[in-house]
Amino acid sequence: MGDAEYLLSIETSCDETSAAIVRRDRHVLSNIVATQFELHERFGGVVPEIASRAHLERILPVIDEAVRQAGISLTGVGVVAVATHPGLVGSLLVGLTAAKSLSLALDVPLVTVNHVAAHLYACRMAAGADIFPAIGFVVSGGHTHLFDCRSAVEMDLLGCTIDDAAGEAFDKVAQILGLEYPGGPQIERLARDGNSAAFSFARTFLHEPALRFSFSGLKTAVLYAARGTPGSRTPVPELTTSRIQDLAASFQAAAIDVLIGKCEQALKQTGRRTLCVGGGVAANGAFRSALEEMVSRLGVRLVLAPREFCTDNAAMMALGWEYYERGLLAAFDTDVIPGLMRS
Fold first, then answer.
1. What share of the chain is helix, strand, coil (3-state, %, to 5)?
2. Domain of 162?
3. 72 and 142, same structural domain?
4. How far are the Cα atoms of 9, 45, 86, 137, 167 from residue 63, in angstroms, in the given order?
5. Which of 8, 265, 280, 293 could join 77 via S-S bond, C-beta 3.0 to 4.6 A?
């Protein structure tokens, strides 16, 4: 399909404004990410209206910098890819509007990309070759989803969270413990010096055959351990640094046990011999180590997204090449599909 050499990809699904230039051989020439942590920190989470306004301010400078760093001219772009689902409606619309405008102005094809599938394509980028078919596992602030991936663009949802996503639970537990936003890195840092057996938190659905997750109860259990059970007259121990470390370690261990257990179930149920894992939580060192131990025990291949491609970024939108090469182009009346992926 066509002779395009350079793809411009755009990612604005949540709170990162990102643009990248990716060559057809999947070599990333530039990957610019403008984060919004400082804008949302005092709210303890992403505020959609603030996010979309920040995208509006940053989208053109980010695209300009991506082209400049790639060492090409804008007219050298042969295809434009953009994330259109899932995500925050206002944020997605900023990216799609920019992508449509560039596609029209440059007279080049437009392709639309599923943001969640792109997290798995970051694994393909790391491998440097095709990794499918595989079990795909996206673990992030908005998603905890297991897929049976027949190819980069064909996947069936095997199971997902029924409430909080894993990354969302990390952020909420960090907020309970008085830690900075985003909470995932803070939990991981404190957990290194904590006792993961100090608190016996439940592993919801771990021993059930259904491939589903729930982290809401785990989050509430941490809340009660940290601040006391409502109506109880039992004094709550002081939330010392040591206690916070133990709570962080015990929470992290419980969450990872469930994530690993469901990965193992998916591999056994489908018979797949490759597991690819992406998303923000995939940057967690303890989770990565547990994944490596699990696949070693099962004798299957593990492909992890590089840490720099775990959080939202435009380089993973190189998935757009797969659509372009299959002739799966987007029409100019295409729209965004907001919200979260649910089963």
1. 45, 20, 35
2. 130-309
3. no
4. 9, 26, 21, 29, 28
5. 8
Whether 66 and 20 have beta carbons less than 8 Å apart is answered as yes
- The residue behind tokens 């939580």 is 281
214 shares its domain with 227: yes
By the 8 A CB rule, do 4 and 12 touch?
no
Give the pair of three-digit tokens for residue 170.
Answer: 């990390």
**How far apart are alpha carbons 8 and 99 in whole angstroms?**
9
Largest Cα–Cα separation, the chain: 72
Does some domain include residue 21?
yes
**CATH number of the domain bearing residue 320:** 3.30.420.40
Q: 316 and 305 in one domain? A: no
Residue 225 and residue 319 share a domain:
no
- pLDDT tens profile 142-183: 899 999 999 999 999 999 999 999 999 999 999 999 998 888
Same domain, 138 and 243: yes
The number of folded domains in the chain is 2
Judgement on whether residues 249 and 201 belong to the same structural domain of the protein: yes
List pLDDT tens digits, range 188-228.
Answer: 999 999 999 999 999 999 999 999 999 999 999 999 999 98
Mark whether 113 and 203 lie in a shared domain.
no
Question: In terms of Cα–Cα distance, which of 18, 29, 33 is closest to 70?
Answer: 29
The answer to whether residue 342 sits within a structural domain is no
**Residues 3-53: tens digit of each pLDDT:** 899 999 999 998 899 999 999 999 999 999 998 878 887 887 788 889 999
Q: Find the Cα–Cα–Cα–Cα dihedral 268, 269, 272, 274, rounded to 10°.
A: -60
Residue pair 202/210 in contact by the 8 Å Cβ criterion: no
Map residue 175 onto helix, strand or coil.
Answer: helix
H helices of the chain, where?
37-40, 48-70, 89-106, 115-127, 166-176, 183-191, 216-227, 241-270, 285-298, 320-325
Residues belonging to the chain:
343
Q: How far is CA 57 from its chain centroid?
A: 23
